[in-house]
Amino acid sequence: MSEDDPKARLQRLEARIAAAKHADKPKSHTDEHYSQAQLAWRMVIELVAGLGIGFGIGYGLDSLFGTLPIFLVLFTLLGLAAGIKTMLRSAQEIGADKRGADAPQDEKRD
């Protein structure tokens, strides 16, 4: 073996270990790849949940009172409105998050 400085050998070893760790690191999927699909599914689920809950309440009240189409239609429409309102709230949250994330980048460009 050669008479190298132990500190220099240690630094070379640390550099090789760091390079090996960096090479073995799996390539991460970007969140942007899945975010649009996740957002779309979230909105669809919120809308369908609102419709389903409204339908269930309306059907339950109609079967209880014996007035089949009245409460069913009324609560289904209310469920639709609630689902749309929840979808819009989700879209505003995502928009606010993206605007908040874009703001520091705009400041760096100036």
TrEMBL record:
Pfam family, one: ATPase_gene1
InterPro entries, alphabetized: Atp1_alphaprobac, ATPase_put
Transmembrane segments: 39-59, 65-84
Keywords: Hydrogen ion transport, Ion transport, Membrane, Transmembrane, Transmembrane helix, Transport
Any single GO BP term: proton transmembrane transport
CC terms in the record's Gene Ontology section: proton-transporting ATP synthase complex
Entry keyword Protein biosynthesis: no
Source taxon at top rank: Bacteria
Family designation: Belongs to the bacterial AtpI family.
Task performed by this protein: A possible function for this protein is to guide the assembly of the membrane sector of the ATPase enzyme complex.
Listed name of the protein: ATP synthase protein I
Highest classification ranks of the organism: Bacteria, Pseudomonadati, Pseudomonadota, Alphaproteobacteria, Rhodobacterales
